[in-house]
Amino acid sequence: MQVNISTRHGHLSPASQETITEKVSKLTRLFERITGVEVTIDLEHTEKPEVELRVSAERTEDFVATDKAESLLAALDSTIHKMEQQLRKHKEKLKAHRPKGSQQPTDAETNFEG
């Protein structure tokens, strides 16, 4: 997975970039088909930085989440939370569309005596 970090109206320290990369890399635990992540940080309003997260995945449209907060890390955490919700919802949608033959039988179906 490739992570690109860009900033508008300011600069980030290498330590901040490393922290952002570590946090964003954890998204692959939810959805293994992620191919790239773009993080855009807007520092125009220093009292409320804005973070935009764009996740590219195989066989689907890009996922986008944005948020503003009092600090950069708070905005990042909130944006990652929104992205996690989108990825979970998409993964559930994929599971719901599987053909009947590929689903595992449930305990109730295997223990049925009739």
UniProtKB/TrEMBL annotation:
Residue numbers spanned by region Disordered: 84-114
Record keyword Heme present: no
Single GO biological process annotation from the record: negative regulation of translational elongation
Biased composition (Polar residues): 101-114
Biased composition (Basic residues): 88-100
InterPro entries associated with the record: HPF/YfiA_ribosome-assoc, RHF-like, RHF/RaiA
Subunit comment: Associates exclusively with 100S ribosomes, which are dimers of 70S ribosomes.
Family matches, as PANTHER family: 30S RIBOSOMAL PROTEIN (PTHR33231)
UniProt protein name: Ribosome hibernation promoting factor
Lineage: Bacteria, Pseudomonadati, Planctomycetota, Planctomycetia, Pirellulales
